[in-house]
């Protein structure tokens, strides 16, 4: 088995790290299958880090919950009874092959590396699923993966945002021989000193569906860098890289319905677009409803209604956008993490609010004209205080 050669000058540390990962993988694989175990839900009730070491009703930090889940057999889930930013003192490390889901639903949780530490390390065979979560300001100076370094584990990212993470390779996510599945997620403001501002993959499998990359930067490939086995993109926007082009390395596999604002992704499907110049977005990363920030589509964006219902998961496996808005809207799905929707119906009236409603009705026509400008008006009502 030969390993694909690297695209950069002298990445000996990378080669050594990959070699070590492969060795650990072999050792762990020989341990064999584990019996299915009951799952436990841990509820984080504090945004502190690290905490006193025990996850209990008095104080359960994210780190304490992860450590508890990691040492409890079964595929566990972590939820939150608090909202806000968790400022990490050090990296959160996943070891358990049983699987762990961290779900920020009904909260608004940002896990922040504070610009000083990587956010997550996923070790060989460990399984981590992130849902409805923001991973921000992770930092791996001179190293791999500011948001996540996946060392031959399995990472599933759904309805989540990676913002302002940085590393030498893979500002948002560095995948090293593992499996990464990204759906309905946004990568914005991530950077790599060398390759892959959003994602850098070297070996393994990366599948990106209905996601939005915008405003990332790197010397090579601000969106996605494929070192060897390429990532597969479908229903995805890679746009507005501030340096280094959108894609790089091995040509990205085109799963259809992708948009790039330059030619670097070299999409081949008839349904995909290279070098798109029409306006795509209504603004930058903003609170558009839902537990995470997203990038709203411009009403005339070529991404809107590009994917027919029943095609590439539209309305079948992909039934909401990142915020939780039902897909499809207007009979077809939009490319990227955001589905353009009509304003949500007014809440049930009580007698005090009736008068207000009459006033609002008057403004409705006026509002409709501008309804996607500010980025504040979400398509759904479920939203809790953004921290
Ligand atoms: Ca505690
Ligand atoms: Ca567990
Ligand atoms: Ca639509």
Structural features, described:
With 387 residues, this protein is mainly β. The chain has one domain. Helix content is 11%, strand content 31%. The protein has a nine-stranded parallel β-sheet with strand order 1-2-5-8-12-16-20-24-27, with helices on one face. β29 (281-286) and β30 (294-297) form a beta hairpin. The longest helix is centred in the N-terminal third of the chain and has 18 residues, at 12-29. The protein starts with 11 loop residues before the first helix and ends in an 18-residue tail after the last helix. The structure holds calcium ion (3 copies). The site of one calcium ion has 10 residues, from β32.
């Amino acid at each position: 088995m030969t390993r694909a050669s690297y695209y950069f000058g002298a990445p000996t540390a990378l080669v050594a790290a990959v070699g070590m990962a492969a060795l650990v993988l072999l050792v762990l694989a020989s341990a064999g299958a584990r019996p299915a175990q009951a799952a436990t839900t841990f509820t984080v009730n504090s945004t502190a880090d690290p905490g006193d070491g025990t996850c209990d009703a008095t104080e359960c930090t994210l780190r304490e919950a992860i450590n508890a889940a990691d040492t409890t057999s079964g595929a566990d889930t972590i939820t939150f009874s608090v909202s806000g930013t968790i400022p990490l003192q050090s990296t959160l490390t996943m070891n358990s092959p049983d699987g762990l889901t961290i779900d920020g639903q009904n909260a608004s949780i940002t896990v922040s590396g504070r610009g000083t530490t990587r956010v997550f390390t996923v070790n060989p065979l460990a399984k981590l699923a992130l849902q409805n979560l923001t991973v921000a300001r992770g930092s791996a100076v001179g190293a791999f993966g500011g948001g996540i370094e996946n060392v031959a584990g399995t990472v599933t990212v759904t309805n989540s945002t990676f913002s302002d993470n940085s590393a030498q390779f893979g500002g948002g996510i560095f995948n090293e021989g593992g499996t990464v599945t990204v759906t309905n997620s946004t990568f914005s403001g991530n950077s790599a000193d060398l390759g892959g501002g959003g994602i850098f993959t070297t070996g393994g499998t990366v599948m990106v569906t209905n996601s939005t990359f915008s405003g990332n930067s790197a010397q090579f490939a601000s969106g996605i860098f494929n070192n060897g086995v390429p990532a597969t993109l479908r229903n995805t926007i890679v746009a507005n890289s501030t340096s280094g082009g959108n894609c790089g390395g091995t040509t990205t596999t085109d799963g259809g319905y992708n948009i790039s604002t330059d030619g670097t992704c070299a999409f081949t499907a008839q349904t995909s677009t290279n070098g798109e110049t029409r306006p795509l977005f209504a603004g930058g990363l903003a609170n558009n409803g839902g537990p995470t920030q997203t990038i709203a589509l411009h009403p005339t964006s070529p991404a809107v209604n590009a994917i027919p219902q029943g095609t590439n998961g539209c309305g079948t496996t992909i039934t909401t956008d990142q915020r939780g808005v039902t897909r499809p809207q207007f009979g077809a799905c939009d490319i990227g993490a955001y589905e353009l929707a009509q304003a949500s119906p007014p809440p049930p009236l009580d007698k005090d609010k009736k008068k207000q409603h009459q006033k609002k009705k008057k403004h409705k026509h006026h509002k409709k004209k501008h309804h996607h400008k500010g980025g504040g008006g979400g398509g759904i009502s479920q939203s809790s205080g953004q921290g």
